[in-house]
Amino acid sequence: MGAISANDFIFRIDTTTPGTPDTEIEGAIDFDIQGGEVTQQDFSTLKGKRKKSRPGQLSQGTFVLNVRTDMLDAGQNAVREAVATRATKTMEVEAPTGETWTFSGYFTNEPGANGSIDNSVNSTFNLLIDGDVAFDDGTP
C-alpha cells in the first residue's frame, strides 16, 4: 500500500442490514483508527530473580471520527441513535484508493458539539472496537 491522501475518505455505518455498512456519514473532518495493545501477564514468582511475563489478550482498538455537525445527516443520526440504544454497529472506512477497514463496536460517548467564532460546529464520535479490524487492499 502506498501513501494515501486523507481527502475523499468515505465512512459508512450499518443502518438497513445489520453488519453491512450502508449509510454514509457525511461531513468528516478527520479520523483515527487505533489498534489494540497486547496486555502483559505477569508470571513472576517470589523465588525468581527476574520478572517473567507473557503476552496476554489483544485489547480493543478505538475509532474516532470528527465531523461538521449536521443534524439532518442520516449517518450522523445513525451514530446518535446507536449511542442512545447502546447498539453495536459495523463501520466501514473506505480510502479513495479502494482500501477498506471494516470493524464492529459500540459508541462510547454522547456526541456533543463545539464551535467558535469563524468556525463551524463540530462533533466527535468515539467507537470502542469489539473484535478484529478487517483490512481489504481493494484488489479483485
Main β-sheet description: 8 strands, antiparallel
**Residue runs with pLDDT of under 50 for 5 or more positions:** none
How much helix, percentage-wise, in residues? under 10%
Q: Helical element count?
A: 1
Structural class: mainly beta
What is the terminal-to-terminal distance? Answer: 15 Å
> Quick one: how many beta strands?
10
Calculate the mean pLDDT score and round it: 88
The proportion of strand residues reads 35-45%
Give the radius of gyration: 19 Å
Order of H and E elements? EEEEEEHEEEE
Q: What form results from the Cα inertia axes?
A: globular
Describe what this molecule looks like in 3D:
The protein is globular, with a radius of gyration of 19 Å. The longest helix is centred in the middle third of the chain and has 12 residues. The model has no long low-confidence stretch (mean pLDDT 88). It is mainly beta and 140 residues long. Strands 1, 2, 3, 6, 7, 8, 9 and 10 form an eight-stranded antiparallel sheet that branches. A hairpin with a 5-residue loop joins strand 7 and strand 8.
Topology:
Blueprint: E1 10-13, E2 23-24, E3 28-34, E4 38-42, E5 53-58, E6 62-68, H1 74-85, E7 88-94, E8 100-107, E9 122-129, E10 134-136
Antiparallel strand pairs: 1-2, 1-7, 3-6, 4-5, 6-9, 7-8, 8-9, 8-10
Summarize the structure.
The protein has 140 residues and is mainly beta.
